[in-house]
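Recall from the previous chapter that SMILES is a line notation for molecules. Here it describes NAP.
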Amino acid sequence: MRAIVQDRYGPPGEVLELKEIERPAPGPGEVLVRVRASSVNTPDWIAVTGVPYALRLQGRVRRAANVVRGSDVAGIVEAVGAGVDFGVGDRVFGSLWTSRFVTAGAFAEFTAVPAERLAPIPAGVGFEEAAASVMSGVTALCAMRDTVDVREGMKVLVNGASGGVGTFAVQLAAHFGAEVTGVCGTSNLDMVRGLGARHVIDYTRTDFTEGSERYDVILDNVLNHPPSRTARALAPDGVLIPNSIGNGGGLLAGLGRMARARFLGAAGRVDVRFSPSEASRENLTAVSELLASGAIRAVIDRSYPLEETAQAVAHMLGHHARGNIVISVPEGPQAP
Ligand SMILES: NC(=O)c1ccc[n+]([C@@H]2O[C@H](COP(=O)([O-])OP(=O)(O)OC[C@H]3O[C@@H](n4cnc5c(N)ncnc54)[C@H](OP(=O)(O)O)[C@@H]3O)[C@@H](O)[C@H]2O)c1
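With both inputs in hand, we obtain:
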């Protein structure tokens, strides 16, 4: 099968190569998925570049030795291992992500995925939309539904409202009845408003941390301000969700600000909550129901063919994607 393989860290254009490799076989509890689409997320560019270096030192980025990257997947069940409740031909979407940045397998024609990290794609939802909704959709859902139980009338600010996670977070918070403020650049204001944000702030003109408005929840997907400054925009019982590894390179990138947010929370002055991205069958099913009902949709910036995965990852590294970046895999040859 064709796959995007990496054997060292570096810029995507230099280290990602399209190669013929052996097709994986599904083990017990696993599903072999004929990939039709994947999407690019923060863990993918981290795994490709090996930056921030601190994650390498912690052993949280697997050594790049002939590995296939990519975690989000949408496709068709080709074969199943023992004890799997999907049938051949089912349309499924899900994740290979583990919290250790071992994103292995989705940028390929076939991949083996644990069945509990897959859910059926609902009728009317395409492969690209499904793939775009895995990490971004689940991360936003975990933040807005679980980390804080966003309710009718709450004031929610989403910083980085026009990115992959932000576009879902704005829609979900609005769906749960919140009064949403989206912070994004000038060219994305209308798009974010169209997703359900009642207010939009153009960060090139206005610094939301300097304003007089106070929010019950701030989901910070950018961490471009020190967390103590961002917290100034919180209502007295407000919750800050720091959610960014940052855009910089070097040893730490945004990890330093995440640590500062942790100290801020530990000092007891601010309710700081970190939010996971748990692509369980249950969470994927919740996302699929929201997609099927039209409550949310995936915003897709651009779709790249598999052989242009390096360009797709480089696009993500620009940190100005408008929604999600998708990789599309044609139907390909039938399996022998
Ligand atoms: N909790 C988890 O497990 C988990 C999982 C996935 C991702 N994440 C985190 O979530 C964050 C967001 O991910 P993503 O996929 O949404 O990233 P993304 O798609 O790369 O975000 C790009 C967006 O950020 C916006 N942006 C850039 N600079 C900005 C600024 N100064 N102020 C406001 N917006 C700005 C850009 O808008 P403009 O083009 O308008 O500038 C662009 O639309 C990442 O940092 C990642 O670390 C966490």
